[in-house]
Amino acid sequence: MRSQLCIYDLTSGGVAEVLSTRRLIEAPNWAPDGTSLVVNGNGRLFRVPLDAPELAAIHTGHAIKCNNDHGISPDGRLLVISDSTDTGQSCIWVLPITGGTPRRITAEVPSWWHGWSPDGKTLAFVGRRDGAFGLYTIDVEGGDERHLVSGDGHYDGPDYSPDGAWIWFNSDRGGSMDLWRVPAAGGTPEQMTADDRINWFPHPAPAGGKVLFLSYEPRTEGHPRDRDVQLRLLDPTDGTITTLLALFGGQGTINVPCWAPDGHRFAFVRYEPEES
């Protein structure tokens, strides 16, 4: 299987391949300065310069079991990772974007990062507490986690709207996996999709107005890898959904924020079986 790191251009509808590798890589983030992407693979993080694409390892200290829930601060100075090296379960850490010694943020595990507030002060994440999944926020400097919403079923993918007012997420709290949003300050969640597909990982565009998400075929359970999936765009004002691209992917394709700073492009990973 090959991993293909790609960029989709909304203006042209075209796809440009940035890098292809036999290594399993996942979950691209786009640096705020627009010059590079960050991906994970085999427990490590890598920077991919767009002017000369390669997998350049990022030093993450003792944290060598990073999963695909990572991201870059709005000012481009910090990298947040979700790693299980110390605890055996996913825990959130922050370190300099250039690499270095991670600083632990969440006391409780498991915790999986997914969103950074536009002002750079707050992290949104998924936690499992007493057996139940839910959404939480916590200050970048640490402290007590704040509960947003939880309940029966699954909660995942919290990502901030560009004005910081909403946190988008996916959940099957309504019976099927759909997109939802909840006020970032807390409040009642609103369901934003209700079709027959299985919808995951909403990412609001930097300029607002559209939300990118991953969509599986009906009746898919969980968010597996190596499936026929779609990348789709939701207009929250009228509920219109546009299918941008069909691909072979799923887990690892767009788990975390992946928009370019210009809001006209986004990065994703697709997978291709190699011929024997």
TrEMBL record:
Signal peptide: none annotated. It comes from the Bacteria. It holds the Pfam family PD40. InterPro entries: 6-blade_b-propeller_TolB-like (IPR011042), WD40 (IPR011659). PANTHER family: PROTEIN TOLB, PROTEIN TOLB HOMOLOG. Belongs to the TolB family. This is WD40 repeat protein.
